Structures
1.
Amino acid sequence: MVQAGVDVLCVGAGCGLVPGRWWTQAQIRAAWPARLDATSGHLPVELLLLLGEAYRAHIGPDLPSLRVPSGSGETVVALALAYPGADLVAVYDDRQPETTYHPEAPLTPLVRRLCAVEGA
């Protein structure tokens, strides 16, 4: 993102800001009102719909079942929006930071409502 000229506020390991907890969308908006919140689990519904449409354009019209490596939940939610009848399983693996299950993550309740969950 930085190479593309996007002014990014780096948050996480190796960055200037390392959160010790999950922040709500309202807390992030209050702290940085002029920035797009691309925090894991905070993508706007409109963007999740667009991601789902892009997945559908790439995968095709049918997706009967799929195990989806999951962390914050954007990918499996976008797929669930694009394929409402699909049998999706959100697969968490706490041995990998990008697929670690966090019960307090913003999209966790939606992931649990939209699909089966494994490893949580």
2.
Amino acid sequence: MLRPVMRAAGIGAIVMLVYGTAEAIHFRQFCAKHLAWIRAEQNPSAVVLDGGFAVARQGDSLFTCVIDHCFGVAGCHADLSCYCAPATMTPTGLAELLNARSCAVDHIVPSPGDDTGACRHAHCDEHVGP
């Protein structure tokens, strides 16, 4: 009875090691929000987000925010994301709320037809606020 249990535990440990390694590689090489930050560092007019499911609601503005993203022993890197938040919110207030390095207004009144700025077509990664 002990042998099957030890075998199952060993297989579980191997699976967790492989999964953790895959996640660390993804974090280091393929994190979309970090790649957006790299693009924006190289070219300040680069697009951060131009598609997705979340769109600005009535009364929202679009903000870009730089947030530190950490993954255990793999370390930390900067992520750049688009956020939909109430138009009454300031970039500083949003940065404090998200614990971000910084935030900036991308569109005060976003529209689905807008193809300018870093956050295109009123898309955002996340809604903040009511």
